[in-house]
Amino acid sequence: MLKTSLTWNQWLDKAVDAGYPAAIAQQALLSEEAQARDLALSAVQSGDPDAIFSMSDWVRTGTRTEEETATLISAWKILACQKGYDCGPGSDWMLSACSWNPQCANGRTYTDVLQRQLGSQYDEAVRLANSISQAIVSKDVQALRSYL
Question: Can you tell me whether residue 139 is helix, strand or coil?
């Protein structure tokens, strides 16, 4: 019986070493993503609200449930709003969110919309936002990576 205890990355490395073009292309894509993610992590350490908001695009499901992933994405957005990202009623982001969400009400902020969407998970998103904020202040890259 063949024992296969290699990880996906190890299999990919073996395929690249064997010269398989699809594997080489996949590894190149992953390398570019890793470099881009590292640049984004570097930018977010500045505390800039735009950089913080963009980190929600880097969150991956991995071992998280869909609900956990959605809560974490929202946490990055909540933190960006707290740090000065324009999340007010007339903001571009709010107008964009309301273009696909008919439940948006006039005069609401994006944080209000998130609170309504997340329901009982909103408090967890705020808790995560506070933890992410602490990681940014301390420039703890390892902790920041755990929120992606």
Answer: coil
The 3-class secondary structure across the chain, one letter per residue, is CCCCCCCHHHHHHHHHHCCCHHHHHHHHHHHHHHHHHHHHHHHHCCCCHHHHHHHHHHCCCCCCCHHHHHHHHHHHHHHHHHCCCCCCCCCHHHHHHHHHCCCCCCCCCHHHHHHHHHHHHHHHHHHHHHHHHHHHHCCCHHHHHHCC
pLDDT digits (tens, 9 = 90+) for 26-72: 877 778 888 888 889 999 999 999 999 999 999 988 889 999 999 99
Residue 26: helix, strand or coil by DSSP?
A: helix
Three-class SS of residue 112?
Answer: helix
Average pLDDT over residues 130-138: 98
Name the amino acid, one letter, at 118. L
The token pair at 116 is: 């309504």
What are the CB-based long-range contacts (under 8 Å, 24+) for 86-93?
Answer: 87/111, 93/53
pTM across the whole model = 0.78
pLDDT, averaged across the chain: 87
